[in-house]
Design brief:
Elements: E1 2-11, E2 18-20, E3 23-26, H1 39-51, H2 57-60, H3 73-86, E4 89-99, H4 109-120, E5 127-132, H5 138-141, E6 145-156
Parallel strand pairs: 4-5
Antiparallel strand pairs: 1-6, 2-3, 4-6
Helix pairs in contact: 1-3
This protein binds magnesium ion.
Amino acid sequence: MRIGHGYDAHRFAEGRPLYLGGVLISENGGLLGHSDADVALHALMDAMLGAAAHGDIGKLFPPADATWKGARSTDLLQIVRQKLDEAGYRVGNADITVIAQKPRLAPYIDTMRRTIADILSTDIEDISVKATTTERMGFTGREEGIAAEAVCLLYKK
Ligand code: MG
C-alpha cells in the first residue's frame, strides 16, 4: 500500500469555462491554464503519481508540449490511470479538497465523485470530494483563484 499527496492552484481568467473534478461547473469564471485548468483533477493526478513515485503531471504532460494545449483533464486522468495500471498499481481510495471562496460547489460534489470513480474504475465510495472556503483569507479568499489538495492510496496488484 502506498500513499501520495498532490497540490495545485490556478488563477481565475476571463472567458474560460470552469471545470472542477471533471465536471463543467460554468461557462465563465474559469481558471487560467495550459489544459482545462481543472485544479481538483490536477491535485488528484499528482497524488496518484506521487504514490507511485512516478514524478508529477508537469513531467508527464509538459506545458511546452502543444499536445496538451486545451486538453481535458479527464483525458489526462485516464492516461495517468493507464500508466499506473501498467506499473501494477490500482487506486484504493482518494480524498480531494477544493479550496475556493466561489462558486458554491456542494451541488456538484456527487457528480465529480461519479466522474472520477468511472475513470478510475473504483466504487463511488472510494472517491471523496470536499470543498471549503478560507473565510476570505489568502489568495483563494480574495477570489484570485482556486486551489486543491488530494491524497490517494495505491495498492500493488
Ligand atoms: Mg495545474
